[in-house]
From TrEMBL:
<dbReference type="Pfam" id="PF00684">
    <property type="entry name" value="DnaJ_CXXCXGXG"/>
</dbReference>
<feature type="binding site">
    <location>
        <position position="189"/>
    </location>
    <ligand>
        <name>Zn(2+) 2</name>
    </ligand>
</feature>
<feature type="repeat" description="CXXCXGXG motif">
    <location>
        <begin position="172"/>
        <end position="179"/>
    </location>
</feature>
<keyword id="KW-0963">Cytoplasm</keyword>
<keyword id="KW-0862">Zinc</keyword>
<feature type="zinc finger region" description="CR-type">
    <location>
        <begin position="159"/>
        <end position="237"/>
    </location>
</feature>
<comment type="function">
    <text>Participates actively in the response to hyperosmotic and heat shock by preventing the aggregation of stress-denatured proteins and by disaggregating proteins, also in an autonomous, DnaK-independent fashion. Unfolded proteins bind initially to DnaJ; upon interaction with the DnaJ-bound protein, DnaK hydrolyzes its bound ATP, resulting in the formation of a stable complex. GrpE releases ADP from DnaK; ATP binding to DnaK triggers the release of the substrate protein, thus completing the reaction cycle.</text>
</comment>
<feature type="binding site">
    <location>
        <position position="225"/>
    </location>
    <ligand>
        <name>Zn(2+) 1</name>
    </ligand>
</feature>
<keyword id="KW-0479">Metal-binding</keyword>
<keyword id="KW-0235">DNA replication</keyword>
<feature type="binding site">
    <location>
        <position position="175"/>
    </location>
    <ligand>
        <name>Zn(2+) 1</name>
    </ligand>
</feature>
<dbReference type="InterPro" id="IPR002939">
    <property type="entry name" value="DnaJ_C"/>
</dbReference>
<feature type="binding site">
    <location>
        <position position="214"/>
    </location>
    <ligand>
        <name>Zn(2+) 2</name>
    </ligand>
</feature>
<dbReference type="GO" id="GO:0009408">
    <property type="term" value="P:response to heat"/>
</dbReference>
<feature type="binding site">
    <location>
        <position position="172"/>
    </location>
    <ligand>
        <name>Zn(2+) 1</name>
    </ligand>
</feature>
<dbReference type="InterPro" id="IPR001623">
    <property type="entry name" value="DnaJ_domain"/>
</dbReference>
<feature type="repeat" description="CXXCXGXG motif">
    <location>
        <begin position="225"/>
        <end position="232"/>
    </location>
</feature>
Length: 386
């Protein structure tokens, strides 16, 4: 959608809302009209399809706080005649808003009658007091870097240090980042005198823009560095020793401030974000800060109670299984889970699983039959009440 559309279209009228409508009112109006005009509900209805497009276009602008503010400012100037006043520049030429966009053919982009300035340059100068969209290139922060690191389950829970090899952009060692061939130096841009900005006057408008010769940097390189071809940066391989804190979970991101790509023109470096990929463990599971483990017990141990040896990350320990413990019962061992930031730890959750023997000796079978005769019967009569 072009800026000219913003001048010619009343998006508030398209949605049927007031100019001071709230975001909620705009959304409600859009949803109602979208349901009513959707092509699926109006097959073959060209008029409904065009209205649906117009409604979508209006909502796209008015639902975005920044775009809505720009639209309101632009429309208010247009309606007040700020653009349509005839103005005379140094060359004596008249122009109005149609001159900015080009006449007849709907031409977009730079207009040579205004020195190649685009409408966005001129429009930007109105709202910035003549400063325009151009500005000298400021220090730029380096890009953030994403990486993955694979961890064993125990290392993720207890913490570890691990090497990580990365290939990222770094400062060229040959030219030290200025892009110039060794023995030469960048020189001040003659077009902007090293400021990175050029000032332009077009009729009633005065605005600034980044120098196109030096891209707003303020310097130009005559002889480019053969290593980086004038960019000042090269791809480098580096190996870091990463400290993994205890308790890292699968998919968690770890931020290392300042370990990303270097900044430009003295800007701060970016950050390194490492995503932990935790390998599953054959014995332990994890539920938040708690560890989980399943321990098999015999029928006799579950009925009579017993002390069984249970694995922990610190080694084996004895856990009491109370008499009459059914299969699936959860036993909690305090403080044997995942370390927390406050210095405490989660718990170890032990699931009891009664193992049913597949084969019995004759003696064991007789003993079990004797037990069945002595044990109280299991009541099932409630299952037959239907």
């Amino acid at each position: 959608m072009s800026s000219k559309d913003w001048l010619e279209k009343d998006f508030y009228a398209v949605l049927g809302v007031a100019k001071d409508a709230t975001s909620s009112e705009i959304k409600k109006a859009y949803r109602r009209l979208a349901r009513e005009l959707h092509p699926d509900h109006n097959p073959g209805n060209t008029a409904a399809e065009e209205r649906f497009k117009a409604v979508s276009e209006a909502y796209d602008v008015l639902s975005d706080e920044n775009r809505r503010r720009e639209y309101d400012e632009m429309r208010s100037l247009f309606e007040a005649g700020a653009f349509r006043r005839s103005a005379r520049g140094a060359g004596g030429q008249h122009f109005d808003v149609n001159d900015l966009f080009g006449q007849g053919g709907g031409r977009q982009g730079p207009d040579q009658r205004f020195g190649g300035a685009s409408f966005s340059d001129l429009f930007g100068s109105i709202f910035s007091g003549g400063a325009g969209t151009g500005a000298p290139a400021r220090p730029a922060r380096g890009r953030d870097v994403e990486a993955e690191i694979f961890l064993d389950f125990a290392d993720a829970v207890q913490g570890t240090t691990q090497p990580l090899t990365l290939r990222t952009l770094g400062v060229c060692d040959t030219c030290h980042g200025d892009g110039a061939k060794p023995g030469t130096r960048p020189r001040a841009c003659p077009h902007c005198q090293g400021t990175g900005v050029v000032n332009r006057n077009q009729g009633a408008f005065g605005f600034s823009e980044a120098c196109r010769d030096c891209q707003g940097v303020g310097t130009v390189v005559d002889q480019k560095c053969p290593e980086c071809h004038g960019t000042g940066g090269v791809t480098k391989t580096r190996t870091l020793t990463v400290r993994i804190p205890a308790g890292v979970s699968d998919g968690q991101r770890i931020r290392l401030a300042g370990r990303g790509e270097p900044g430009e023109r003295g800007g701060a470096p970016g950050d390194l974000y490492i995503r932990a990929i935790v390998r599953p463990d054959a014995m332990f599971g994890r539920n938040g800060d708690d560890l989980t483990v399943t321990v098999p017990v015999t029928f006799a141990e579950s009925v009579l109670g017993a002390e069984v040896r249970v694995p922990t990350l610190d080694g084996m320990m004895k856990v009491k299984v109370p008499a009459g413990t059914p299969s699936g019962r959860l036993l909690r061992v305090r403080g044997k889970g995942v370390p927390k930031r406050d210095g405490h730890s989660g718990d170890l959750l032990v699931t009891v699983e009664i193992v049913v023997p597949q084969q019995l000796s004759e003696e064991a079978r007789e003993a079990l039959a004797r037990f069945t005769e002595l044990a109280p019967p299991v009541r099932r009569d409630h299952l037959e009440r239907r």
